Design the sequence.
């Protein structure tokens, strides 16, 4: 009997689940599946909402150039570019920060004559020059040292008496703290100053400028049209007018320039290059005259004047160097704003 009882107990321990237990398991499984479906649906809806929000934000960046908090959040999270310069991205958030700072600066300085388009152009050019400057400095092994920043920082603090006053003034002018001003403005200024020092002392580059000027002078001596050569090779604001400087008297130009201009005859071209602090000049006098003008004592005296034009070949400088780089760069502007890079002559000075 005992053996039979054990067998029965074993059978009870190994019997299959009852119908009620099976129903409970099925119900739990169904509830678990429903929870999974709900979670998948919620995640899907959340993902869809994020995609839609992102799409709206992207549209507002590239079609509207919007600056509201929603659009700026999307731009920051997605790191949306405003443009690319030689493959280097300029983020939209940085473009807007510079734009707002320049607008604040313009209003504070009373220069309300600048249009939104002109302000945007200046910001785009500034950010482009930042990239070109940084790349050029890296190629030449030029860096910004803590001592460089400290020197400019001390100068600002000395100008405004205290650190607090400097911060307050920068906040008023640009909406930036001193640290932000250092990162956004000072670093580039330091690199450009160091670049300028290195480029201007490059004797090989200086000799190349002189050689080019000599070649153009030889062509003019052989009959090349002066005005056309000025338009093609002149490196100052007179180039577009064929190098015309208009009428001027003694004391209006730098001494080295005047010393030659006033000795030339009407229609004569300087036989040699004229060197001034700006570079090498080729000078042509179109006309000469004598006018009666009042001197410092109010007495009428005869004054000689010349109507001249010139072709300037600038010495190597960071401005000239960056200008050359800007003509070779590749820019992809993504914003719906005026593109200042379609005409290199539109670069703000």
Sequence:
């Amino acid at each position: 009997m005992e053996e039979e009882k054990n067998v029965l107990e074993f059978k009870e321990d190994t019997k299959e689940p009852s119908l009620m237990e099976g129903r409970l398991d099925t119900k739990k499984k169904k509830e678990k599946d429903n929870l999974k479906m709900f979670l998948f649906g919620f995640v899907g809806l959340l993902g869809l909402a994020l995609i839609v929000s992102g799409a709206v934000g992207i549209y507002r960046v590239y079609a509207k150039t919007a600056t509201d908090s929603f659009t700026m959040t999307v731009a920051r999270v997605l790191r949306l570019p405003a443009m690319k310069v030689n493959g280097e991205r300029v983020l939209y958030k940085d473009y807007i920060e510079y734009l707002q700072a320049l607008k604040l600066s313009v209003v504070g300085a009373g220069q309300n004559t600048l249009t939104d388009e002109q302000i945007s152009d200046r910001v785009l050019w500034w950010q482009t020059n930042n990239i070109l400057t940084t790349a050029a400095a890296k190629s030449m092994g030029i860096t910004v040292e803590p001592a460089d920043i400290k020197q400019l920082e001390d100068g600002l603090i000395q100008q405004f008496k205290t650190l607090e006053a400097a911060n307050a003034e920068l906040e008023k002018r640009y909406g930036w703290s001193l640290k932000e001003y250092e990162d956004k403005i000072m670093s580039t200024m330091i690199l450009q100053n160091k670049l300028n020092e290195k480029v201007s002392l490059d004797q090989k580059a200086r000799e190349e400028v002189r050689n080019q000027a000599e070649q153009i002078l030889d062509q003019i001596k052989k009959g090349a049209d002066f005005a056309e050569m000025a338009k093609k090779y002149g490196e100052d604001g007179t180039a577009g007018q064929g190098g015309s400087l208009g009428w001027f008297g003694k004391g209006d130009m730098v001494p080295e320039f005047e010393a030659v201009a006033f000795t030339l005859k009407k229609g004569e071209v300087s036989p040699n290059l004229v060197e001034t602090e700006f570079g090498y000049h080729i000078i042509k006098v179109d006309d000469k005259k004598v006018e009666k003008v009042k001197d410092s004592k109010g007495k009428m005296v005869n004054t000689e004047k010349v109507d001249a034009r010139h072709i300037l070949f600038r010495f190597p400088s960071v401005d000239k160097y960056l200008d050359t780089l800007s003509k070779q760069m590749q820019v992809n502007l993504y914003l719906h704003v005026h593109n200042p890079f379609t005409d290199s002559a539109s670069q703000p000075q």
